[in-house]
Amino acid sequence: MSNAQTWKERLADHMPPDLAREIDIFETQMELRRQGKIDEKVFAETRLRRGIYGQRYDNGHRHDGVKVQKLKLPSGGLTKGPETVWDAPGMLRIKIPFGGLNAEQMEVLADLSEEYSDGVSHVTTRQDIQYHFVHIDDTPSLMRRLAAVAITTREACGNVVRNVAACPLAGVCRDEVFDVTPYAKACSRFLLGHPDTQDFGRKFKVAFSGCVQHPCGLTSMHDMGGIAMKKIVDGEEHRGFEFYVGGGLGAVPYKAKLFDEFLPQEELLPVAQAISRVFARLGEKKNRARARIKFLVANLGIDEFRRIVLEERQKLTPDPRWTDFLSGVNAQTEVPLRRGVSLNGSERPEGFDAWYATNVYHQRQPGYVVATVNLPLGDITADQLRALAEIARRFVKETIRTTVEQNIVLRWVSEGDLPELYSALKAIGLGEPNAGTIVDVTACPGTDTCKLGIASSRGLARELRQRLSEKSLELDSAVKDLRIKVSGCFNSCGQHHIADIGFYGISRNINGYTVPHFQVMLGGKLKDNAGAYGLAAGAVPSKRIPEVVTRITERYVRDRQKGESFQDFIGRIGKKEVKAVMEDLTHVPPHNVDPSYYTDWGDPREFTLTDMGVGECAGEVISQAQFTLAASERELFEAQLHFDSGDFKKAVWTAYSAMVQAAQALVKTQNYDISNSDDAILGEFKQRFCDTQLFYDKYAGSKFADYLFKARDALTNNGNIGKELALQRIQEAQLFIDAAHSCYNKLSSMKSASRASTSAATSAGEG
Questions:
Q1: Are 408 and 132 in contact (CB under 8 A)?
Q2: Dist. CA 734–CA 6, nearest whole Å
Q3: What pLDDT, in 10s, does the model give residues 194-224?
Q4: What is the band of 74 on the pLDDT scale with cuts at 50, 70, 90?
Q5: For site-directed labelling of 510, which of 74, 421, 574, 662 has its Cα 20 to 30 A away?
Q6: Are strands 236-245 and 79-80 parallel, antiparallel or unpaired?
Q7: What is the pLDDT of residue 82?
């Protein structure tokens, strides 16, 4: 007999109990999906909420033509009839709240990327880590190994609160009002899995910034954002936030609206909870294109939205978590490894000065700096990540963060150690300069792996980066400070709206051929927390985009007025002149004259849109009742496992709990604020569904409802619970849950009929 242990067994004592339980639940849900006991649409949103996406995949290659090594090919995915979860390996997103990492976590991430992915960890524009080409069968083991180092994938995707982002310089920034790290951490923990954040129509993104003027937090483009503020009241200093809500990019970008000029720190979490409840209740659920909170704020107006939220805030039951974390916000959470020493006359290796000029930030703490590790396109290999973890142990006390610019920073580096640090980074291929310059191009995955990608954002970004890097020493200082961001489609995952020069992928039909193009966006403003969005200037074939960058930047250097910003320059010369600058670049020669126009960057094949798929950016809108019913199915499955192991008492209790969950699913369709206690749920269920006969099956009458109350009453009996009773209770629970599904479907039909009737009446009245 083999003594080999599973990852679950090996890590049993290392995982936080809550994370371990979540993963067990997901593994059970996977098994139920295999058995056809969870609807595919419900499971799709379930896996998204565990960070698991489907992705574009093409015959063993990434779409940019790079061969994938060690790829575990699909064995059919989770199938039921003609439906499949994945027809091929997919993507796993890993939450890194405020970008904070330590060396041990980096080593685990490196190992997992090699064992389960293509050996690359990708840093996203919201400080997450992503793996591509991961098979869904491997995800529970992968999640457990992450949980053992306090990392979760929970709610990294789906219609929930995503990763909470924050300035990577928080705590060491020279211009910050105060360190926002503890607030971002508290917000992330409080909102993760909170009952009031589970019924959104779309995703919800949160960010914190320590100051108004810099772009590190980008609060203006978030659903909810806080900028650190202080206020003197009666001679005493108080902390709070300039608080914003309703921002977002995507196809229709909105700048966030000011919710409160000074939201006291004590009100941060309760107001976030109230906003979540209002969004869940009033946000769009049917039309996903209008389901972000930015549309709700725009429709209501910020004044009315604020009024509703503050009214909701007053209804909330006090929660000690709202303020418990505040006792530690002034505590020193990071300390240096070495004494801060100035650089002075230290010997400098070749290439150091260029790197020092762009990749080093002087902290407000004398003698210490932040060193940026430049990751081209946000990618870092497993070997590099392991080596970087060791470098972090050597030079800093594991004070590491990812950035929204897809890089990694090492904080609390003694300035005197920089030459030695640079040499160590250079030795592992991570010594590139030009972080935070025009060379440091940001890009979303695009057609490499995204089903919605139209044009190759990474391919274009790679080309631009190479060309700009080659002439970086010749670039005018005004040009060097500009930022370029590229998205593969209009959804703005590459954040093209807030770049000085942005691009997003589109296509054009030219003489019967589909030709990759990029829409040119000019004049966005990264500073001031994404202070302005750029405007479209025209569509240009993908292969001519590098020339667009050259012409626009050369024109800016030649014609700008003294001290004139790029945004002001573009506004002054006007859209007509900008189009004239690019006009000849828009033309596409016939296919037989120059076929290169009909291919995309990094892919020699003729361009086509046929391999695009249905995106999973947020999943379908699944009601909270559907999730709770699915949870009751999962709990009943666990009751069956207890039965099989001979623990009949636990089987009975779990079967009863499964019935209560199913009843709760129905009750919350009519009373969302019901207490989670069994007595409250059963009381409401009897009043709303039994007394009204809404729950009653036309054949079984009240029998199925009686199973629930009988099970509750039987729990007071302390006698022995045998196999026969346990089996009976499990069977009754299954019938009750089936009846709850039928009742929910009936309620949904009644609601649809009511809407149709109202619509018809309204139409008749208008006619």
A1: no
A2: 31
A3: 999 999 999 999 999 999 988 888 999 999 9
A4: very low
A5: 574
A6: unpaired
A7: 32
Looking at beta carbons, which pairs linking 67-71 to residues 24 or more positions away fall under 8 Å?
68/118, 68/133, 69/118, 69/119, 70/114, 70/118, 70/119, 71/118, 71/133
Model pLDDT for residues 257-281, shown as the tens digit of each residue: 999 999 999 999 999 999 999 999 9
Look up the pTM and report it. 0.84
Provide the pLDDT for residue 489. 86
Q: Which helix (H) or strand (E) holds 231?
A: strand 224-233
In 3D space, the residue among 245, 237, 293, 301 whose CA is nearest the CA of residue 264 turns out to be 237
Spatial distance between the Cα atoms of 721 and 507, rounded to a whole number of angstroms: 67
pLDDT (mean) for 417-428: 97
| Secondary structure string (H, E, C) spanning 493-543 | CCCHHHCCEEEEEEEEEECCEEEEEEEEEECCECHHHHCECCEEEEEEEHH
* pLDDT tens digit sequence for 2-15: 566 777 777 777 88
- pLDDT-based confidence at 67, cuts 50/70/90? very low
Find the angle CA(659)-CA(202)-CA(452) to the nearest 5 degrees: 120
Asked if residue 647 lies in contact with residue 670, where contact means CB atoms within 8 angstroms, the answer is no
Place of tokens 């005197």: 416
Residues contacting 524, CB < 8 A, separation 6+: 496, 497, 498, 499, 500, 502, 530, 532, 533, 534, 567
The residue type found at 200 is F
Q: Which of 668, 634, 640 is nearest to 652 (CA)?
A: 640
**β-strands 501-510, 484-487: how paired?**
parallel
What integer is the mean pLDDT of 624-653? Answer: 84
Judge whether 102 and 412 are in contact, CB under 8 Å: no
All structural domains of the chain, each given as residue ranges with its CATH number in brackets, are: 1-159 (3.90.480), 172-332 (3.30.413.10), 352-427 (3.30.70.3340), 442-606 (3.30.413.10), 624-758 (1.20.120.330)
Look at residues 293, 218, 188 and name the one whose alpha carbon lies nearest to residue 495: 218
Residue 141 host element (H or E): helix 139-147
